[in-house]
TrEMBL record:
Region (Disordered): 66-99
Keywords: Membrane, Transmembrane, Transmembrane helix
InterPro entries: Quino_amine_DH_bsu, WD40/YVTN_repeat-like_dom_sf
Biased composition, class Low complexity, residue ranges: 76-91
Name listed for the protein in its UniProt record: WD40 repeat domain-containing protein
Transmembrane stretches, start-end: 42-62
Length: 417
């Protein structure tokens, strides 16, 4: 088969050939500007050069367009990435807080990157075709985010979770947005949680499998499942699993070194309770537990109990173990208040913030805290209320301040910084 030179090489040869046609021998002597019909013949070499340049530009544009259209449809792409406020060069440093935060919304379904100082949207991303955003977490560099998307498999009705990595440039625009197919998994429940280890090498996921009891209501089918924790190494895809033998609710994953903390509540079906109208109920106290991911063992019930709250249902609580491992923050037992506890004693240290009461309907349910993340220093927390308010908690300065948000009225607003 005859080898065809690359496009750039063919264009270069054509350009040189046209240029060779123009030289001293073809250059007419200088004359006064007198019109002569035959003078137009002298413009032929110039026209050839212009023609070649135009063809070259058009060919390169067509070649690039061809490569764009040839990209697989299921390849995650920041196709909706567009700066909310144009930036030129790195943004100024934001002392006292992370520079960027990522917030996922369902209406519209997109992931927004914001400058935490100005509130400017530096990038917008759409999920892969057919997926919706599920969760977002950040590594320790404030530039690398792990994003999960979900889609329901029509053949099995299971939820398929895909994992993607997002890297930002210094101006907050998208530097890389790629899929990590080896890290994906399937689950029967979409109410999931995720956390990236401080060094950015591992991800912890919550995964559920169906409970064999089929005599359940629609609500119970959504919650009454057997939960487990999976820790996967990003570079190799190697997984380690901690599972439970009974129905449970697991959430609020957070890391302190190799220690993974989480909320754990054992659940029971209302059909097995004295009052069938109870629906889903908690069995025992909601606990915040911790696993040493480097130690042997594969059972969350065997994990260390950091805090136990018998006055909590365990279904809507949030919690966060701070990076130093000495204290944790939760709203368990008091859903409208974030409170700091000592890990060593289990006693409360102080109240941090009350959920903003900005709901339009005063007769509606109380506004609660539904999301909580911390930066790598553990000083700055990003809290989310049930009405979409974002709040910055500065633990060292003992200050709270609102963060820019479009405030979608949804129960959970996945976010991280």
């Amino acid at each position: 088969m005859k080898t065809v030179p690359p496009l750039e090489e063919r264009l270069r040869d054509a350009y040189r050939a046209a240029a060779d046609a123009w030289g001293p021998s073809t250059t007419p002597p200088l004359r006064p500007p007198v019109w002569n019909p035959r003078r137009r013949r002298g413009l032929a070499p110039v026209a050839a050069i212009v023609c070649v340049i135009v063809i070259a530009v058009a060919a390169v544009a067509i070649d690039k367009a061809h490569h764009r259209s040839a990209r697989p449809a299921d390849t995650p792409s920041p196709s909706l990435t567009s700066p909310g406020t144009p930036t030129r060069g790195p943004l100024p440093a934001r002392p006292g807080r992370p520079r960027f935060m990522a917030v996922a919304s369902s209406e519209p379904d997109e992931l927004r990157i914001r400058d935490t100082g100005s509130g400017a949207v530096t990038a917008r991303l759409a999920p892969p075709r057919g997926d919706t955003f599920e969760d977002v977490a950040v590594a320790g560099d404030d530039r690398t985010f792990i994003v999960t998307t979900r889609a329901v498999d029509p053949r099995t009705s299971q939820v398929r979770i895909s994992v993607h990595r997002l890297r930002l440039s210094d101006d907050g625009t998208v530097k890389e947005y790629t899929s990590l197919p080896r890290l994906g998994y399937s689950t029967v429940l979409a109410d999931l949680d995720m956390a990236v280890s401080p060094d950015g090498t591992k991800i912890a996921f919550v995964v559920y499998k169906a409970h064999p009891d089929k005599a359940r209501t629609l609500l119970e089918n959504g919650l009454m499942n057997i939960g487990r924790i999976e820790v996967v190494t990003i570079a190799t895809g190697e997984r380690r699993t901690w599972s439970t033998p009974y129905m449970s609710k697991i959430g609020s994953l957070s890391w302190a070194g190799s220690t993974l903390a989480f909320t754990f509540t054992r659940l029971a079906s209302g059909a097995h309770q004295p009052d069938p109208g109870l629906g889903v109920t908690a069995v025992g106290a909601m606990q915040i537990r911790a696993l040493d991911t480097g130690a042997p063992g594969d059972s969350p019930p065997a994990a260390t109990v950091l805090l136990s709250r018998p006055d909590s249902t365990g279904l809507t609580d949030v919690a966060r173990l701070l990076p130093d491992g000495r204290s944790l923050i939760t709203n368990a037992g008091h859903p409208t208040i974030l409170r700091q506890y000592s890990v060593r004693t289990g006693r409360p240290i102080r109240d941090l913030a009350k959920a903003p009461t900005t709901r339009d309907d005063p007769t509606g349910p109380d506004v609660q805290w539904v999301g909580l993340t911390a930066d790598t220093t553990g000083r700055h927390l990003l809290a989310v209320s049930s009405t979409g308010d974002l709040v910055h908690l500065d633990l060292a300065g003992r200050k709270t301040a609102p963060l820019p948000s479009d405030k979608p009225d949804q129960d959970n607003l996945p976010s991280a910084w």
